[in-house]
Input
Amino acid sequence: MFDLNTVEPDHTETSDLEEIVMGLIINAGQARSLAYAALKEAKQGQFIVAKEMMENSRQALSDAHRVQTQLIESDAGEGKVKVSLVLVHAQDHLMNAMLARELITEMIELYENMN
Output
């Protein structure tokens, strides 16, 4: 996973920004993948495994959200952070992962209640 200890709020250089953006994409993608894997386990009645996977998904999403928060803080609403297509793409990944986790959490609960 992306090492948040290497991210500092005042990073605005292109290579630093690319590293931060990759952290968003990697962690958001991990969160989404784990959530869908958890749903697959829940469909098979493996609710304990599904809940463990959802917790791992939550942690990956939390890591991604922390990176996003650091980006927002470093920009301070002053346009310090260069907005690129890759950054927009990373934000899209994060929002999709968040939505997928929310919906999959509800679906797992439904599967659990049906059993």
The CA atoms of residues 33 and 76 lie 31 Å apart. The radius of gyration is 16 Å.
